[in-house]
Each structure stands twice: as C-alpha cells, then as structure tokens.
Design a protein that fits this description.
The protein is α/β, with parallel strands linked by helices. Helix content is about 45%, strand content about 20%. It has a seven-stranded mixed β-sheet, sandwiched between helices.
C-alpha cells in the first residue's frame, strides 16, 4: 500500500472502533455533499476529539468560527449540558441553511445558534452582548484571518478556556516564511501569536489520515 492508503486504512480502523458515525452525522455529511458544500469538514476522529476536549473542559459554552454543514458543530454540541450554548459563525448563507437543517435533525437546535455573515463582523457584535466567557473556541474558517480570530477568541474567553485552531500545517507549507499565500501567512501569524502571547500556552500537532497531511494548534488561556 502507498503511504496515503495506509493513512486511510488506519483512519478507517480508528473511526470504526472509536468514533463511528451514526445516522445523524452520516446524514449531515450526505446532505452537505448533496448541497455542493466543499468536503473540508473535520473527520469523525477529529470530531470525536473536539467532543472529548469539550467534555474534559466541562464546557457549557462553545464558540465555533466556521460552521460549514454543521458536522463539527454536532460533535461539539453533543458534549454540552441541556442548558449549554454553542454559537457558530458562518460566512455563507447557503452553508448556514444546510447546517441548520443538520443541527435540527440532530435535536440540537435549542442549544446551537448559527449566525450568518463575515466572522470579523459578527465577533464585535457578539462581544457587545457581553456573553459569559466561552469555555472552548474552535477556529476553522478562512485561514488568512486566523490571527484575527485568535485575538477575538482571547477577548471572549477567560482563564482555563481552550482554543483550537484547525488546519495549521498546510501540507507542510506553514514553515515557508517567504510564502505569499494568505492562508499560510495567516496561520503562521496565529502560531506565532500563541507562542509569544503572555496569556496563551499552546502546542501544535501534525496529523495524517483521510484528509491528508495537516494538523491543529491547541492553546490554553492563562490568567
């Protein structure tokens, strides 16, 4: 088998044993694909990791930047208590429409709110509401703005909160300091902010699997 085939086979084994999709998550993926949404959602294993992180945090409030079809939203929202709250920000009205249907079918529409529009417009409005600090923030939107999303995440969290930034490896291109690619530059800026900010302690992990070669950054908010 090729290296990528090995990755896929191992991913399939881990998914089957530890994070199998059920009728709801399978339907969310199916309907997202049928609606023509880009197939860039997290994998089931990654969704399960987000759910576990929310449970470890004892999260009652979650902020997601980048809803897509609501697949990751469902994984995280299932970790919340009945009176928990997940706010997901989505740029595309069409993506949000698909996500809302998927979330409602999962029975999570009382817990999840999807706000439509550019996240950098939605975040100041959210801050103006003075919500309780979010226990977990998942950043998975346009990578060029990762640094700005991270700065807003810091404003909307407090000591002990957890911030996850997805897709930080960029197939290895993240190491290219001379890159003119906005996604690479935005990701590098976010990584460097995590490394230098006095209120953040973080790391980044490389991953392989059905989504290829990538990874995520994980940061804890300090006092």
């Amino acid at each position: 088998m090729s290296e990528s085939q090995v990755w896929d086979t191992v991913d399939a084994y881990f998914t089957a044993q530890l994070a199998p999709d059920d009728e709801v998550t399978t339907a969310a993926l199916r309907d997202s694909e049928a609606a023509g949404l880009p197939q860039v959602n997290v994998t089931a294993n990654q969704g399960k990791l987000l759910q576990l992180l929310a449970q470890i945090q004892g999260a009652r409030t979650i902020l997601e930047i980048g809803t897509l079809g609501g697949y990751s939203t469902i994984w995280m929202a299932r970790a919340l208590p009945a009176d928990g709250r997940l706010i997901s920000l989505e740029y595309s009205p069409r993506h949000a429409e698909v996500a809302l249907r998927n979330i409602a079918r999962a029975g999570l529409d009382k817990v999840v709110e999807v706000r439509v529009g550019p996240a950098l417009d939605s975040l100041p409005l959210l801050a103006d509401e003075n919500p309780p600090p979010f226990d977990l923030v998942f950043i998975d939107a346009d990578k060029a703005n990762n640094e700005h999303y991270l700065e807003w995440a810091l404003r909307l969290t407090s000591t002990g909160s957890l911030i996850v930034v997805d897709n930080v490896v960029r197939s290895g291109r993240v190491v290219d300091a001379d890159s003119t690619d906005g996604d690479v530059r935005g990701t590098r800026s976010a990584i460097e902010l995590i490394g230098s900010h006095p209120r953040l302690s973080g790391t980044a992990i490389q991953t392989v699997g059905t989504k290829g070669y990538d990874g995520f950054a994980l940061a804890r908010v300090l006092a």
